[in-house]
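Final report, section 2: Outcomes. Of the targets proposed, DUF2993 domain-containing protein is the one most frequently requested by collaborating groups, and we therefore present its record in full.
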Amino acid sequence: MAVAVDQAAAGFAEDKLASRLACVAGLPQVPEVNIHGAPFFAQAMDGRYGAVSVLARRISLAKLTVREASATAHDVSVPGGEGQVRIGRVEASLVMDYSSLVTQAPAGARLSGSDGLVAIETTAELLGRRVPVTVFAEALLSGATLRVVPLEVEVLGLRTSVDALPAKIPGASGISRQLPPLPGGLSYRQVTAADDGLRLSIGGEDLSLETDGGNDGAKSCGSAA
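The predicted structure is given below as tokens.
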């Protein structure tokens, strides 16, 4: 009986936190939230949680389409009476649709993942006729700047270095895009070209987040769990 009550209380707290996160972040859908560790009541009374994980799907960040966003916060502390949440460590991942890069790609290009590289499918005029071309590029991070750097190009079934072709190939100049700013303490750490999109790894330590919206008249999204 005690276990069932504890689980029910944890579920209530998870739902409350999920609704608050959706409100604060302006998410179109309520994310999935899981508070790990047991018993829940002991953690709640102490105001400290071993780990809290969050999963959200299909969100938009600064005109970027995010297919999936997941995060796990470790050593979460919610001091009583304070409008603040303290987090020891955060590990997060964003899967960004390749369509988010289309505006920087050649007109009509199609982007996808291919063996850890970004494949840019387009066309080029060679020897007086337009032929299909695929540029294979590496995704790199420089701070909050995402760069897609071409390495190879495939034309008429022949794959070679981008520098080996004398003709200017659409997409061979690469793509550069500024990523959305992150809350203080978080930073972009790695990018991987996956089949379902560009996977951005984010991390941070010793974070302090305001939860009461301040006193400037901002909308209230409720109290922390």
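The chain has a mean pLDDT of 81.
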